[in-house]
Design goal:
The complex is a heterodimer of chains A (about 270) and B (about 300). By secondary structure, chain A is α/β, with parallel strands linked by helices. Helix content of chain A is about 30%, strand content about 25%. In chain A, helix 4 (about 135-145) packs across helix 6. Chain B has helices at about 15-50, 55-60, 75-105, 110-125, 125-145, 155-180, 180-190, 195-205, 210-225, 225-235, 250-260, 265-300; strands spanning about 65, 70. In chain B, strands 1-2 form a two-stranded antiparallel ribbon. The chains are: A alpha/beta (about 270), B mainly alpha (about 300). The interface of A and B includes residues 114, 126 and 163 of A.
């Protein structure tokens, strides 16, 4: 349980390395629900323009941790957070932080696709329009849908209800909706858990496309997904960070016995 | 030799049969009652319309059924009902919806557990109490501000009916808003929306069918409301535009005739079936419309 602190450029020679440019820094983050601890003193960085996955068995606090990164836990009664989450040097839970402004910079895609019962176009345009976007909305909608690899499938029915799309299309629409805000960071909470294998493959391909422009943090309990898609991996168990490192390291030469047991499928 | 694995029928299960018939009979009783009511309304109304032409009834502007020379134009009664209903809707729909939004979207769980039962309690007050409240509180208040108000006046009736149907709007709209999946709110918040934007642009539009249905049910209650308006607005059929004057609604007229000494069987007596039939058609249409709106839009998100 010792994430090393020496920066390493390559993980091929030395298996342990941590990112150089981090956009988010979790520092001894503890979260509890009405006094029941869910996350205990977790620290690790989120690398810029990389994909960081958070893995662990059900109930390990990975979703809770993810939702603390854009303060979605504010809507849950009785949640308290200790420690610091630094976003470009600012504490996300500081008194002078506006959570509304924060969520414009740190977007989120949820476990179940949750498009608004509006047209496909309006789903994408809504976020930018309430935030005073100036510019061509048509272009922004097209660009966001192209980025989310959905444009070809929906370009002829932009003004039809989003609820008529398949589950996988709805999830890509939700990704497009988040991308339309041009966030710095995209949080994804098990985005494929409600989807079939083909839609899942679509979205994993999409992750690779997106990481050149976005920093992505993805929670998953699908180990193949974590190993295929991410650059860094944090393994949580019972609210504790067991190990953090490059994905290759976590999956090939884990330092902790529990990590090895988990990634080889012996429990979880 | 008996085979314990046999799948053959062993005879009728009588208890199942009796339970099924008993439950069916209970359901049948309300269906039959409705049928009988409709039959009587139609039969007596048809009798009435053999003596008074339908067009004179629907478009006549004088309602003088009990005195000679009599006249059976129902428009003044319809107008009275319309004035009360529209006035009540003006109060109840916005205030009720605002209350629902507050309870569903803004209030803490603690406040909600106190306020919601209180609103439901308001819905349980007998309507005659509202009439009494109108006469002893609302009307004197109106008259102290505007001395021109009649003791019986339309505004007082509209106000108390508005208060009366407010809980219907608030609780049913609250149910509609709370049925909006939380994942939609979260999706909206995650795009940097404020509570107000989430509420007005995502939650209310999503729950709109339920809200519209609550509006229509409340309006249909206002149309059929009897005791409060009879006490508050009086018994003067009129096409007056003034809310200061006494008016008469369809329901108040039925009360007047039913309580008076109008002999049964005469044309004056039959008027109450004709106006009741009209009332029935109006409320049936409103209820059907609200059911239709609910079923039409509800299937879309679950």
């Amino acid at each position: 349980m010792n994430p090393q602190t020496t920066p390493e450029a390559s993980d091929s020679e030395n298996p342990i390395s941590i990112p150089e440019n981090s956009v988010l820094d979790l520092q001894k983050v503890s979260i509890s629900y009405s006094g029941n601890p869910a996350v205990n003193g977790v620290s690790f960085p989120i690398a810029e323009h990389k994909i960081t996955s958070i893995i662990g068995p059900s109930g390990c606090g990975k979703s809770t941790l993810l939702r603390s990164l854009n303060r979605m836990n504010d809507f849950v009664d009785g949640v308290t957070l200790d420690g610091q989450i630094l976003y470009m040097g600012q504490d996300l839970y500081g008194n002078d932080i506006d959570p509304v402004a924060l969520r414009r910079r740190i977007g989120m895609v949820f476990q179940k696709p949750n498009p608004f019962p509006k047209s496909i176009y309006k789903n994408v345009a809504w976020g930018p329009s309430i935030n005073g976007y100036i510019g061509s909305m048509d272009e922004l909608v097209e660009q966001s849908l192209v980025q989310a690899a959905l444009w070809e499938e929906v370009k002829d029915r932009l003004h039809e209800s989003a609820l008529g799309l398949s589950g996988g299309q709805q999830q890509r629409l939700c990704i497009a909706r988040a991308l339309a805000m041009s966030p710095d960071i995209l949080l994804m909470d098990e985005p494929c858990s409600a989807l079939d294998p083909i839609s899942t493959a679509h979205i994993e391909d999409l992750l690779f496309e997106l990481k050149s422009n976005y920093t992505i943090v993805i929670v998953t309990h699908n180990m193949q997904q974590a190993s295929r898609a991410s650059d860094y991996t944090a393994f949580l168990e019972l609210g504790n960070l067991i190990e953090f490192g490059t994905t290759r390291q976590i999956f090939t030469v884990p330092q902790q016995k529990r990590t090895e047991e988990y990634v080889t499928g012996r429990f979880g | 030799m008996t085979n314990k694995h046999t799948l053959e029928k062993r005879g009728i299960r009588w208890n199942e049969y009796f339970i099924r018939s008993g439950l069916g009979l209970c359901t049948l009783s309300s269906v039959v009652t409705t049928g009988v009511i409709i039959y009587i309304l139609v039969k007596e109304s048809l009798d009435f319309f053999t003596e008074v032409p339908l067009m004179d009834f629907l478009f006549g502007t004088q309602w003088v059924p009990l005195f000679e020379p009599s006249s059976y134009g129902v428009l003044p009664l319809l107008w009275g009902t319309l004035v009360i209903t529209v006035g009540a809707a003006f109060i109840a729909l916005p205030v009720g919806l605002a209350s629902a939004v507050y309870i569903s979207e803004y209030a803490s769980p603690k406040v909600r557990t106190i306020v919601k039962p209180l609103l439901e309690l308001l819905a349980g007050i007998p309507t005659v109490v509202y009439g009494y409240f109108a006469l002893t509180f609302v009307t004197p208040l109106l008259r102290s501000v505007f001395p021109g108000f009649n003791v019986f006046n339309a505004l007082s009736g509209a106000i108390v009916v508005g208060i009366m149907i407010l809980p219907t709007v608030a609780t049913l709209s609250d149910n509609a808003l709370r049925a909006v999946p939380d994942t939609l709110r979260q999706g909206a918040y995650a795009l940097g929306a404020t509570s107000f934007e989430v509420t007005t642009q995502v939650v209310v539009p999503t729950g709109l069918s339920g809200i519209m249905a609550s509006f229509l049910l409340a309006i249909s209650r206002a149309v059929g409301e009897t005791m409060a308006v009879t006490l508050a607005a009086g018994a003067t059929p009129s096409l007056s535009l003034s809310m200061q004057e006494s008016i008469q609604t369809i329901t108040a007229y039925i009360v007047q005739v039913s309580l008076g000494d109008t002999p049964a069987g005469g044309i004056a007596y039959k008027t109450i079936f004709a106006v009741a039939g009209l009332l029935f058609v109006i409320t049936l249409a409103l209820n059907t419309l609200s059911q239709w709106i609910l079923s039409r839009y509800q299937a879309e998100y679950d």
